[in-house]
Amino acid sequence: MSKSPKGGTPGKDIPSPRSRQHPSISERLEQFEKRQRELWRITFLLLFVIAAGFAIVSWQTVRSLAFRFEGAIPGFIVLVALFVLYAWKRNQEISELRGLLHGIEQRDSSPPSEKQMDQLFDIIARSQQGYRDLIDSFDDVLLALSLEGDIRAVNRSFADLVSQNFQQIIGRNISAFVEEAGGGGNDIVERAMPRFLERRQWTGVLEIRLKNRNAVYFFDCVAHAMTRDGQVHGVTILARDITALRRNEARFTELFETLQEGIYIVTPDDRILDANPALIRMLGYESKEELLARKVSEIFPDEALRTAFQGEVDRQPVLEGREIMLVRKDGRPLICLNTAAAVRDNSGKIVRYQGALMDITVRREIERRLYKQQEFARRLVDSFPDLILVLDTSAHYTFISPRIHDVLGYESGDDPEMQLGGRTHPEDQPALRALFDEVIAGAQSFASLEVRVRHKLGDYRRIRCNFSPLFSEKGKIEGVVISGRDVTELKRLEEQLIQAEKLAAMGQMLAGVAHELNNPLTAILGVTELIREREDLEQSLQRQLDLTHRQARRAARIVQNLLEFSRPASPQKKPVDLNAVIERTLQLHEHSLRKNNIEVDFHARSGIPEVVGDANQLVQVFLNLLLNAEQAIREIRESGRIQIRLASSGRRVSITVQDDGIGVKAEAIPRIFDPFYTTKRPGGGTGLGLSICMSILREHGGAIEAEPLPAGGSAFTVYLPAAGAAPLEFAPKDSAAAFAEEAARNPSADMSGAAIAPAARAEENATISASGAAARVLVLDDEESIRDLLAEGLGAQKISVDCAATVEEARKLIARQAYDVLLCDLNLSDRENSGGGKSAAERVLAAAGERKPAMIFMTGEYMDDARRAQELGGAACLQKPFRIADVVAEIRRVRSAGKSA
After folding, report:
1. What is the per-residue pLDDT across 101-110, written as a single tens digit (0 to 9) for each?
2. 618, 621, 622, 627 alpha-carbon torsion, rounded to 10°
């Protein structure tokens, strides 16, 4: 081997041409490895920055979402795995390239071919393009800067943001594209770089202005230093555009602060994280800090409800509109509608609850009051005895109370299209429609009308309707309210009562007329009879006397017929419950009592025995007593009270009606039951009511008493025999009224037949001497014609007669002289004697001492055997008009009966 000129080996001294190429390849390989290491640092740095940036930027957002995103974590893992696989493939290419270059270095004798060099550069180009494509696939902005702010590399997102291509961007300063939004100028890198070099990383939000768009953007940035041999030579920045998020956050904050609903954020461990001003006001706190210092359990103290509510929120994404009750700062309850949702972390664990509260306390209070009012109105309508109807302005019914079934037999929904007047009697429809139109027009604020309405069964019922306008919230009339009461039965009772009063008045009048007519008729018949007995009468005078006698008998018959005509129909008696009778009476008179503010205190009493009677007539009695009590109260006050009490003693039942009205004077008690006697002012009454009551009660074997009360007012007590008991005894002071009423209700047969007995002419001419001795008779009658007739007629029969017009005269006569017979008028009117003829006879007989004469009463009223036995104790009674022969025969009968006794 030859040596070099200096003596070294020739291989080392003189390199071949191929050896001169090796340094070029080594240099390129060294540059490639250097670039590879830098690329790997950038790649892993970018991967770390992306992961850290994603975690930092998105952590709070993911936690605040109400929906679960557990699938996001596996997706992110798959994305990273794909990136690692991609990097591994590229690393394989680089390893292949490194091996290729290493083989080239080892083969000094055989330099690489052109094909190998092309393969090498193709691998390098494909690796760089792969990394470029990876970086450009990021949605976030990625750029690398020098310490002076010059742009070394950017991705596609930045180029699109500044609307420039890569050639226009690379190498230019970042201040050429962006500036601070606050007006800090273009030296943003120069001012921020010293602080960055101290920490070599920075995370935060930048508010910048893009010069090409002249618009402000917000970027959430992560910056890291690029180092080489421990020295910082550049900055990599990953920036996410959060402008839309910031704007949404601003809108959310504004909404959060201005919402009228309360917004809250709380934790599962009983802490309050946040609340908006509306919730602070709702709960009555002064500041947010004061509220946040409280626990959830202090504001929501119902543990059972809180636990149940939390369980529901845990099981479903959003729980809407659940009603809860919170406690205000001052302790008052706060009723809210709560809409809540649970917020979970990546592991699915609940980290907080958030929701909205709507204060419905006032609404619930209004609803509660409205319900109470509606319930009260509903119960009032249901319990109201009247039918309630509501009509609109078109006269269509919008409401019908259930009472329609009781009143008219219909159901509320039988005819929803029913109009006003649809079932009204044709004759009443015009007046009904006219009154409705007046109320709708506002001409009348209250009106009443009685109409006939067809029942479901076909008959017509009388309904008393009260009309009132129905106003809207604006004060406009939008309908009419009608309350209707069925007065059919009341009208029937009123008609019966009016008829009964008329008949009773007629009966009382005719009874008085009969008494007054029978006295002169008795005198006429007696005188004509005496004259006719004379033997020397002319024939013409005889005819005239016969005519007068016949006409007098005809007049007596007419009086009898009038009495029969005035007698009311016989009652239908059967066992009745007095509790039910009084309740029925109160129902009939309820409207008038309520209208006049009169309270009735009556409670049905069990154990009261039934009585035998006519329920309708007994209703008339108690209705009359209620009317009198009501009128007595209204004379002195605007309101009052009536008490009704039932009691039983033995076989007798008593009913007391007591009022706190003006009362009855003690001096009026003896005459209060007399016909046509009244203590009311003129036009206030007929004076027949109590006399009718007494008449009805007498027919039922009962009685009635009245007494004034010491504290004011009066009490009327009705006595009735229990079923199966005997009729009650009457006091003597009531006998005159009883006689008068019985004459109207129990007329006799033909009066003329009773007045003129069918005695033979021979008996008529017989003298009293046939009885064995001359009789002495005392006549007590206030009618002078009767006294004169008896004195002359009986005197003609050889009977000694003394006459007295008053009780005192009779007492004086009987005290001086003994009499065999006392003839006394049963209807004697004497100022000193208010008890009638029976009381007068008792007083006269008392003055006779032991020499009491036989008793014969005279009356112009009809007196049957039953009444004679009940009222006169079986005493003899002569019915006016009578004949002298009848009187003589009765005198003889009673004298004979007295001697046989």
Report:
1. 555 555 444 5
2. 150
